[in-house]
Amino acid sequence: NWPEKVTIKEVGPRDGLQNEQIILPTQSKIDWIDQLSDTGLSYIEVTSFVHPKWIPQLSDAVQVAKGIKRNPSITYAALVPNERGLEAALEGEIDDISVFMSSSETHNLKNINKSISDTLPVLKKVIDGAANGGKTVRGYVSTVFGCPYEGEVSMDQVFRVCDQLFDYGISEISLGDTIGVASPRQVASFLESAVKRYDLSRIALHFHDTRGMALANVLQALECGVETFDSSLGGLGGCPYAPGASGNVATDDLIHMLHKMGIQTGIKQEKLIKAALLMQSFLEKPLPSHQMAVYNAQ
Ligand code: HMG
Ligand code: MG
Fold first, then answer.
1. Among 15, 87, 99, 239, which is least packed, fewest CB within 10 Å?
2. pTM score, whole prediction
3. Which stretches make up the Pyruvate carboxyltransferase domain (predicted)?
Protein backbone atom coordinates (compact mmCIF):
# COMPACT_ATOMS: atom_id res chain seq x y z
CA ASN A 1 0.00 0.00 0.00
CA TRP A 2 2.81 2.42 -0.78
CA PRO A 3 1.94 5.45 -2.89
CA GLU A 4 3.14 5.67 -6.50
CA LYS A 5 4.41 9.19 -6.03
CA VAL A 6 5.71 11.22 -3.11
CA THR A 7 6.17 15.00 -2.81
CA ILE A 8 9.47 16.15 -1.40
CA LYS A 9 9.89 19.63 0.02
CA GLU A 10 13.52 20.70 0.03
CA VAL A 11 14.37 22.71 3.16
CA GLY A 12 18.17 22.78 2.85
CA PRO A 13 18.56 26.49 2.02
CA ARG A 14 16.61 27.31 5.21
CA ASP A 15 16.84 24.46 7.78
CA GLY A 16 20.27 23.45 6.45
CA LEU A 17 21.96 26.81 6.35
CA GLN A 18 20.42 28.17 9.58
CA ASN A 19 22.44 25.60 11.52
CA GLU A 20 25.85 26.09 9.85
CA GLN A 21 28.61 27.99 11.65
CA ILE A 22 29.67 29.62 8.39
CA ILE A 23 27.52 32.39 6.97
CA LEU A 24 27.59 31.85 3.21
CA PRO A 25 27.79 34.81 0.83
CA THR A 26 24.41 35.71 -0.66
CA GLN A 27 25.57 34.84 -4.18
CA SER A 28 26.56 31.30 -3.08
CA LYS A 29 23.09 30.73 -1.67
CA ILE A 30 21.54 32.00 -4.90
CA ASP A 31 23.79 29.78 -7.03
CA TRP A 32 22.90 26.76 -4.90
CA ILE A 33 19.15 27.41 -5.01
CA ASP A 34 19.37 27.90 -8.78
CA GLN A 35 21.01 24.46 -9.05
CA LEU A 36 18.33 22.97 -6.81
CA SER A 37 15.74 24.48 -9.16
CA ASP A 38 17.24 22.34 -11.92
CA THR A 39 16.89 18.96 -10.12
CA GLY A 40 13.18 18.30 -10.63
CA LEU A 41 12.18 19.47 -7.13
CA SER A 42 8.72 21.06 -7.08
CA TYR A 43 9.09 22.92 -3.76
CA ILE A 44 12.07 24.70 -2.23
CA GLU A 45 12.14 26.56 1.10
CA VAL A 46 14.69 29.22 0.29
CA THR A 47 15.20 31.26 3.47
CA SER A 48 13.49 32.69 6.54
CA PHE A 49 12.40 36.20 7.42
CA VAL A 50 13.25 35.98 11.11
CA HIS A 51 15.22 38.37 13.28
CA PRO A 52 18.84 38.58 12.03
CA LYS A 53 20.16 38.46 15.60
CA TRP A 54 18.38 35.15 16.14
CA ILE A 55 19.48 33.58 12.84
CA PRO A 56 22.36 35.61 11.39
CA GLN A 57 22.95 32.94 8.72
CA LEU A 58 19.78 34.03 6.88
CA SER A 59 19.87 37.80 7.37
CA ASP A 60 20.02 38.30 3.58
CA ALA A 61 16.57 36.77 3.07
CA VAL A 62 15.21 39.52 0.81
CA GLN A 63 18.31 39.56 -1.41
CA VAL A 64 18.21 35.77 -1.75
CA ALA A 65 14.49 35.78 -2.56
CA LYS A 66 14.98 38.51 -5.16
CA GLY A 67 18.20 37.04 -6.59
CA ILE A 68 17.13 33.49 -7.44
CA LYS A 69 15.90 32.52 -10.89
CA ARG A 70 12.28 31.46 -10.66
CA ASN A 71 11.19 28.28 -12.32
CA PRO A 72 7.42 28.73 -12.74
CA SER A 73 6.74 25.07 -11.95
CA ILE A 74 8.44 25.35 -8.53
CA THR A 75 6.91 26.74 -5.35
CA TYR A 76 9.42 28.91 -3.47
CA ALA A 77 8.69 29.08 0.26
CA ALA A 78 10.12 30.79 3.34
CA LEU A 79 9.65 30.86 7.11
CA VAL A 80 7.81 33.87 8.54
CA PRO A 81 7.41 34.44 12.32
CA ASN A 82 5.32 37.63 12.41
CA GLU A 83 3.90 40.55 10.41
CA ARG A 84 7.29 42.21 10.09
CA GLY A 85 8.60 39.01 8.46
CA LEU A 86 5.52 38.77 6.24
CA GLU A 87 6.08 42.25 4.88
CA ALA A 88 9.63 41.27 3.88
CA ALA A 89 8.47 37.93 2.43
CA LEU A 90 5.87 39.71 0.28
CA GLU A 91 8.56 42.12 -0.88
CA GLY A 92 10.65 39.06 -1.77
CA GLU A 93 7.70 37.57 -3.71
CA ILE A 94 7.70 34.32 -1.78
CA ASP A 95 4.99 31.94 -3.08
CA ASP A 96 4.20 29.91 0.04
CA ILE A 97 4.47 31.39 3.53
CA SER A 98 5.48 29.02 6.35
CA VAL A 99 4.46 29.95 9.85
CA PHE A 100 6.02 27.97 12.68
CA MET A 101 5.58 27.22 16.35
CA SER A 102 6.12 24.44 18.84
CA SER A 103 3.78 22.03 20.50
CA SER A 104 5.83 22.37 23.72
CA GLU A 105 5.86 25.62 25.73
CA THR A 106 9.57 25.71 26.53
CA HIS A 107 10.83 25.14 22.99
CA ASN A 108 8.33 27.70 21.70
CA LEU A 109 9.61 30.24 24.22
CA LYS A 110 13.29 29.54 23.46
CA ASN A 111 12.71 29.62 19.69
CA ILE A 112 10.29 32.50 19.21
CA ASN A 113 10.32 34.23 22.58
CA LYS A 114 6.62 33.79 23.34
CA SER A 115 4.19 31.42 25.04
CA ILE A 116 2.02 29.26 22.79
CA SER A 117 -1.08 31.30 23.62
CA ASP A 118 0.71 34.55 22.74
CA THR A 119 2.05 33.03 19.50
CA LEU A 120 -1.27 31.93 18.02
CA PRO A 121 -2.74 35.45 17.50
CA VAL A 122 0.54 36.55 15.87
CA LEU A 123 0.37 33.64 13.44
CA LYS A 124 -3.30 34.35 12.73
CA LYS A 125 -2.35 37.85 11.60
CA VAL A 126 0.38 36.43 9.35
CA ILE A 127 -2.02 33.85 7.89
CA ASP A 128 -4.71 36.49 7.22
CA GLY A 129 -2.15 38.88 5.74
CA ALA A 130 -0.68 36.17 3.51
CA ALA A 131 -4.14 35.18 2.28
CA ASN A 132 -4.88 38.85 1.48
CA GLY A 133 -1.64 38.91 -0.49
CA GLY A 134 -2.83 35.86 -2.47
CA LYS A 135 -0.36 33.47 -0.84
CA THR A 136 -0.83 29.95 0.48
CA VAL A 137 0.32 29.23 4.02
CA ARG A 138 1.96 26.15 5.47
CA GLY A 139 2.38 25.62 9.21
CA TYR A 140 5.20 23.89 11.02
CA VAL A 141 4.51 22.35 14.40
CA SER A 142 7.77 21.47 16.16
CA THR A 143 8.68 19.01 18.94
CA VAL A 144 5.77 16.73 18.02
CA PHE A 145 7.63 13.56 19.02
CA GLY A 146 9.68 15.03 21.85
CA CYS A 147 11.01 18.32 23.19
CA PRO A 148 14.64 18.96 24.16
CA TYR A 149 13.46 20.75 27.31
CA GLU A 150 10.27 18.94 28.32
CA GLY A 151 10.68 15.39 26.99
CA GLU A 152 7.55 13.74 25.66
CA VAL A 153 4.76 15.95 24.36
CA SER A 154 1.18 14.69 24.61
CA MET A 155 -0.72 14.05 21.39
CA ASP A 156 -3.58 16.19 22.74
CA GLN A 157 -1.22 19.12 23.04
CA VAL A 158 -0.03 18.65 19.43
CA PHE A 159 -3.60 18.31 18.14
CA ARG A 160 -4.69 21.46 20.00
CA VAL A 161 -2.06 23.48 18.15
CA CYS A 162 -2.77 21.80 14.78
CA ASP A 163 -6.55 22.31 15.15
CA GLN A 164 -6.01 25.98 15.78
CA LEU A 165 -3.70 26.44 12.77
CA PHE A 166 -6.08 24.57 10.44
CA ASP A 167 -8.93 26.74 11.79
CA TYR A 168 -6.93 29.82 10.81
CA GLY A 169 -6.91 28.53 7.24
CA ILE A 170 -3.49 27.05 6.54
CA SER A 171 -3.23 24.53 3.71
CA GLU A 172 -0.79 22.01 5.21
CA ILE A 173 0.86 21.18 8.50
CA SER A 174 4.39 19.86 8.66
CA LEU A 175 4.93 17.86 11.83
CA GLY A 176 8.48 18.32 13.08
CA ASP A 177 10.59 15.72 14.83
CA THR A 178 12.86 18.60 15.76
CA ILE A 179 15.47 16.61 17.68
CA GLY A 180 15.14 13.27 15.90
CA VAL A 181 13.68 11.24 18.76
CA ALA A 182 10.70 9.61 17.03
CA SER A 183 10.46 5.85 16.52
CA PRO A 184 8.34 4.10 13.88
CA ARG A 185 5.95 2.89 16.60
CA GLN A 186 5.43 6.43 17.86
CA VAL A 187 4.92 7.68 14.29
CA ALA A 188 2.34 4.95 13.64
CA SER A 189 0.40 5.61 16.81
CA PHE A 190 0.44 9.35 16.19
CA LEU A 191 -0.79 8.97 12.60
CA GLU A 192 -3.48 6.46 13.58
CA SER A 193 -4.98 9.20 15.74
CA ALA A 194 -4.22 12.01 13.28
CA VAL A 195 -6.05 10.29 10.40
CA LYS A 196 -9.27 10.40 12.45
CA ARG A 197 -9.03 14.21 12.67
CA TYR A 198 -7.26 15.35 9.50
CA ASP A 199 -7.05 14.56 5.83
CA LEU A 200 -3.55 13.11 5.57
CA SER A 201 -3.05 14.83 2.21
CA ARG A 202 -2.72 17.99 4.33
CA ILE A 203 -0.06 16.51 6.62
CA ALA A 204 3.67 16.45 5.89
CA LEU A 205 6.41 14.99 8.04
CA HIS A 206 9.66 16.73 8.87
CA PHE A 207 12.14 14.27 10.32
CA HIS A 208 15.55 15.17 11.63
CA ASP A 209 18.02 12.30 11.54
CA THR A 210 19.80 12.98 14.83
CA ARG A 211 19.63 9.32 15.90
CA GLY A 212 19.64 7.67 12.48
CA MET A 213 15.89 6.96 12.64
CA ALA A 214 14.60 9.28 9.93
CA LEU A 215 14.29 6.83 7.01
CA ALA A 216 12.67 4.21 9.24
CA ASN A 217 10.18 6.86 10.31
CA VAL A 218 9.53 7.93 6.71
CA LEU A 219 8.81 4.32 5.78
CA GLN A 220 6.35 4.02 8.66
CA ALA A 221 4.64 7.29 7.72
CA LEU A 222 4.35 6.13 4.10
CA GLU A 223 2.63 2.97 5.30
CA CYS A 224 0.21 5.10 7.30
CA GLY A 225 -0.70 7.16 4.20
CA VAL A 226 1.49 10.28 4.35
CA GLU A 227 2.79 11.35 0.93
CA THR A 228 4.69 14.58 1.64
CA PHE A 229 8.09 14.77 3.33
CA ASP A 230 10.55 17.56 4.07
CA SER A 231 14.22 16.86 3.56
CA SER A 232 17.50 18.68 3.14
CA LEU A 233 20.07 17.96 0.46
CA GLY A 234 23.09 16.20 1.94
CA GLY A 235 21.46 16.06 5.39
CA LEU A 236 22.26 19.61 6.48
CA GLY A 237 20.05 21.16 9.11
CA GLY A 238 18.95 21.63 12.71
CA CYS A 239 17.33 24.17 14.96
CA PRO A 240 19.84 26.40 16.79
CA TYR A 241 17.29 26.73 19.63
CA ALA A 242 17.01 22.97 20.17
CA PRO A 243 20.26 21.73 21.77
CA GLY A 244 21.73 18.69 20.02
CA ALA A 245 19.44 18.97 16.99
CA SER A 246 21.16 17.89 13.80
CA GLY A 247 20.33 17.55 10.12
CA ASN A 248 17.10 16.70 8.35
CA VAL A 249 16.71 13.40 6.58
CA ALA A 250 18.88 13.87 3.47
CA THR A 251 17.02 14.47 0.21
CA ASP A 252 19.53 12.32 -1.67
CA ASP A 253 19.12 9.40 0.80
CA LEU A 254 15.35 9.77 0.80
CA ILE A 255 14.96 9.68 -2.98
CA HIS A 256 17.43 6.80 -3.19
CA MET A 257 15.14 4.77 -0.93
CA LEU A 258 11.94 5.87 -2.68
CA HIS A 259 13.25 5.26 -6.19
CA LYS A 260 14.54 1.80 -5.15
CA MET A 261 11.00 1.08 -3.95
CA GLY A 262 9.56 2.18 -7.30
CA ILE A 263 8.06 5.35 -5.84
CA GLN A 264 8.40 8.41 -8.07
CA THR A 265 9.55 11.82 -6.91
CA GLY A 266 10.29 13.63 -10.18
CA ILE A 267 13.79 14.42 -8.87
CA LYS A 268 16.98 13.43 -10.65
CA GLN A 269 19.61 11.93 -8.35
CA GLU A 270 22.59 12.93 -10.54
CA LYS A 271 21.46 16.57 -10.52
CA LEU A 272 21.05 16.45 -6.73
CA ILE A 273 24.59 15.13 -6.39
CA LYS A 274 25.83 18.01 -8.55
CA ALA A 275 24.08 20.51 -6.24
CA ALA A 276 25.46 18.69 -3.17
CA LEU A 277 29.00 18.94 -4.59
CA LEU A 278 28.55 22.69 -5.01
CA MET A 279 27.53 23.00 -1.34
CA GLN A 280 30.47 20.84 -0.26
CA SER A 281 32.77 23.26 -2.08
CA PHE A 282 31.15 26.27 -0.35
CA LEU A 283 31.31 24.72 3.12
CA GLU A 284 34.67 23.04 2.49
CA LYS A 285 33.51 19.80 4.10
CA PRO A 286 31.67 16.63 3.09
CA LEU A 287 27.90 16.69 3.58
CA PRO A 288 26.66 14.09 6.09
CA SER A 289 24.33 12.01 3.86
CA HIS A 290 24.96 8.34 3.00
CA GLN A 291 24.74 9.07 -0.73
CA MET A 292 27.43 11.72 -0.50
CA ALA A 293 29.66 9.41 1.59
CA VAL A 294 29.40 6.84 -1.23
CA TYR A 295 30.02 9.49 -3.87
CA ASN A 296 32.97 11.05 -2.00
CA ALA A 297 34.61 7.62 -1.55
CA GLN A 298 34.68 6.96 -5.32
P1 HMG B 1 11.45 39.21 19.68
O2 HMG B 1 12.74 39.81 20.09
O3 HMG B 1 10.55 38.69 20.74
O4 HMG B 1 10.66 40.22 18.74
O5 HMG B 1 11.75 38.05 18.64
P6 HMG B 1 9.81 41.50 19.05
O7 HMG B 1 8.52 41.35 18.34
O8 HMG B 1 9.78 41.78 20.52
O9 HMG B 1 10.65 42.65 18.35
C10 HMG B 1 11.96 43.01 18.80
C11 HMG B 1 12.73 43.68 17.69
O12 HMG B 1 12.94 42.74 16.63
C13 HMG B 1 11.99 44.84 17.03
O14 HMG B 1 12.99 45.78 16.63
C15 HMG B 1 11.35 44.24 15.82
O16 HMG B 1 11.12 45.17 14.78
C17 HMG B 1 12.42 43.24 15.41
P18 HMG B 1 13.30 47.12 17.47
O19 HMG B 1 12.01 47.85 17.49
O20 HMG B 1 13.73 46.63 18.84
O21 HMG B 1 14.40 47.76 16.69
N22 HMG B 1 11.83 42.14 14.64
C23 HMG B 1 12.28 41.69 13.44
N24 HMG B 1 13.31 42.04 12.67
C25 HMG B 1 13.46 41.38 11.50
N26 HMG B 1 12.64 40.39 11.09
C27 HMG B 1 11.62 40.01 11.84
C28 HMG B 1 11.41 40.67 13.07
N29 HMG B 1 10.49 40.52 14.04
C30 HMG B 1 10.76 41.42 14.99
N31 HMG B 1 10.80 39.03 11.41
C32 HMG B 1 11.17 36.59 16.83
C33 HMG B 1 10.71 37.27 18.12
C34 HMG B 1 10.12 35.56 16.45
C35 HMG B 1 11.31 37.64 15.76
C36 HMG B 1 12.54 35.93 17.13
O37 HMG B 1 12.41 35.12 18.24
C38 HMG B 1 13.04 35.10 15.98
O39 HMG B 1 13.39 35.64 14.94
N40 HMG B 1 13.07 33.75 16.13
C41 HMG B 1 13.42 32.87 15.03
C42 HMG B 1 14.04 31.60 15.53
C43 HMG B 1 14.26 30.70 14.37
O44 HMG B 1 14.31 31.10 13.21
N45 HMG B 1 14.45 29.38 14.67
C46 HMG B 1 14.71 28.39 13.67
C47 HMG B 1 13.55 28.10 12.78
S48 HMG B 1 12.35 27.00 13.50
C49 HMG B 1 12.97 25.42 13.17
O50 HMG B 1 14.09 25.26 12.74
C51 HMG B 1 12.06 24.23 13.32
C52 HMG B 1 11.54 23.69 11.97
O53 HMG B 1 12.61 23.31 11.11
C54 HMG B 1 10.64 22.45 12.21
C55 HMG B 1 11.30 21.40 13.12
O56 HMG B 1 12.40 20.93 12.80
O57 HMG B 1 10.65 21.07 14.12
C58 HMG B 1 10.68 24.74 11.24
MG1 MG C 1 13.67 21.47 11.15
1. 87
2. 0.98
3. 6-273
